[in-house]
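Hello again, I could really use a second opinion on something today. I've been staring at a protein lately and its backbone has me curious. Can you walk me through what the tokens say about the fold? Take your time with it, there's no hurry, and the full record follows here:
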Amino acid sequence: MRLLAFARRGLRCWLAVALVFLSSAAACSDSPSLAKLEIVTAPGQHRVFNVEVVSSGEERERGLMYRQSLAADAGMLFDFQQDQPVSMWMKNTFIPLDMLFITADGTVARIAANTVPQSLETIPSGQPVRAVLEIKGGEAARQGIAAGDRVLHSVFKNVR
């Protein structure tokens, strides 16, 4: 009898540990993946950013909301999977951002610089784009990034 009670208790402990592990793994799978992204400017300078890549509707909807800061070399890449007209906004976003609208071949089509925190005004891409890169407000100008520059990342299938 004691052996059976011990086995049941052990099984319950094992199941509890398994549930904790599975719920932790599920929580981690909901978080955006991290990747390096490189921007080649017209003068040939290379700028590297550590970006969170988001592609699901829920991840794109949340974006950088509620963040209190963003490092100068950090950002978030919104992958829309195909070229389409895109509009962004700053609802519940507490820091100014530069939004780089990027075509499927990795070309920066437009930059919306220093967007206004918490604004509900929509910020349109101006043309169909594959992705939007959000970086710290003013960083595009500081780094010499402009429309026409090339973004290198696997989303655009232009990296080895």
